[in-house]
Write a structure and sequence with these properties.
Oligomer: single chain
Distance between the termini: 24 Å
Number of helices: 3
Length: 81
């Protein structure tokens, strides 16, 4: 399975990161260990939403959508983010 996820910073509420991975637990650990330069500034992170997909391509496409303006509005409306 492949996952698209949205993380929220525990340090700064309202700071979100969107990504995709094949191992959500490992990827969250990497974010919280500071291994990702895009998220190291606001660690620690917690998972606010994730969706599972059968293919990496579907997970990647949903991540790209969630990073768009429409995707931000969708996440706010449907996930309260």
């Amino acid at each position: 399975m492949f996952y698209t996820y949205i993380l929220e910073s525990a340090l700064k509420a309202g700071e979100f990161y969107r990504g995709h991975t094949d191992d959500l637990k490992r990827r969250l650990s990497e974010h919280n260990a500071g291994k990702c330069p895009h998220t190291s500034k606001y660690k620690p992170w917690k998972v606010k939403f994730y969706a599972a997909f059968e293919t990496e391509n579907l997970a990647r496409e949903f991540e790209v959508y969630l990073k768009s303006g429409s995707g931000h509005a969708f996440a706010k409306k449907h996930f309260g983010l």
